Amino acid sequence: MTFVFEDIDDVEMERRRSVVEPLTDAVRDLVDAVIRTEVAEGEIPDVTAAVRAVTERLRSRQSDGPYGVRYTRAGTGMPWGNPAVGVRNAVAPPMRVQAGDDGLRWADVRLGAAYEGPPGLVHGGICALLLDHLLGEAAGADGTPSFTGTISVRYLRETRLGPVHLEARTDRYDGPKKFVTGTLSDADGPSVVADAVFVIPRWARATPPQEAPQ
Ligand SMILES: CCCCC/C=C\C/C=C\C/C=C\C/C=C\CCCC(=O)SCCNC(=O)CCNC(=O)[C@H](O)C(C)(C)COP(=O)(O)OP(=O)(O)OC[C@H]1O[C@@H](n2cnc3c(N)ncnc32)[C@H](O)[C@@H]1OP(=O)(O)O
């Protein structure tokens, strides 16, 4: 696993973000339009060719693999391919994570047609994705990296498409384990709750229990 440091400052990161974000937003809009369009079927082949032409243009120069999790010189993360928050990923709603007091992490997200499961309702996997990510951010609020070890997601009731609010925080620690909880709410209040154990991987522990010299 490699974390790439880009030799740029945060001003340059913001400049790059401002260039690429409108493209990603345009693609999100395209995804929504494809789902909801009612243009005549005869128009679809032309539109398909136009989209393929744009894709070809972007593919004329591209990286070999995924974007990775890059960092600026100041250590600001650029997980721009991430499916929950990625600035370059149209699959991401996107969720913009905010920091509150005492390690609270929260976000307001609008979930439209691309996130539908049951009719008019949010797909359960999308709730789990967003909660997993936000709980991960809450686990990371102390500055140590950790992976989702186990996550339990309880769907209290349906979640309506539209604006949703998410919150998460770390409740307690036990060695390398962080116990994190969170909620996802729609306009009627909490609809999904999550409990997770995030584990600091051995390579990131201050005194690795297994690899410590004898
Ligand atoms: C370092 C990651 C950084 C990732 C950055 C990513 C994106 C950056 C973007 C934004 C940055 C902000 C935050 C990140 C946000 C979201 C991230 C989303 C989260 C993910 O998408 S992440 C991918 C899915 N995730 C995995 O891909 C994990 C695969 N897995 C492993 O990497 C190992 O399996 C690991 C590390 C879990 C444990 O391995 P290990 O060798 O360190 O464990 P070890 O044996 O030392 O156990 C020590 C104590 O943890 C207990 N324990 C062990 N495993 C457990 C489990 N599964 N559940 C509950 N408890 C468990 C033991 O029982 C023992 O506890 P006890 O002593 O009490 O028994």
TrEMBL record:
Query: Residue ranges of the Thioesterase domain?
Result: 120-180
Quote the catalytic activity from the record: hexadecanoyl-CoA + H2O = hexadecanoate + CoA + H(+); tetradecanoyl-CoA + H2O = tetradecanoate + CoA + H(+); octanoyl-CoA + H2O = octanoate + CoA + H(+); (9Z)-octadecenoyl-CoA + H2O = (9Z)-octadecenoate + CoA + H(+)
For membrane topology, the record states: Peripheral membrane protein
Q: Which UniProt keywords apply?
A: Apoptosis, Cell membrane, Cell projection, Cytoplasm, Fatty acid metabolism, Hydrolase, Lipid metabolism, Membrane, Transit peptide
Major location category of this protein: membrane
Name the protein family: Belongs to the THEM4/THEM5 thioesterase family.
Q: What is this protein called?
A: Acyl-coenzyme A thioesterase THEM4
Species source reads Williamsia serinedens
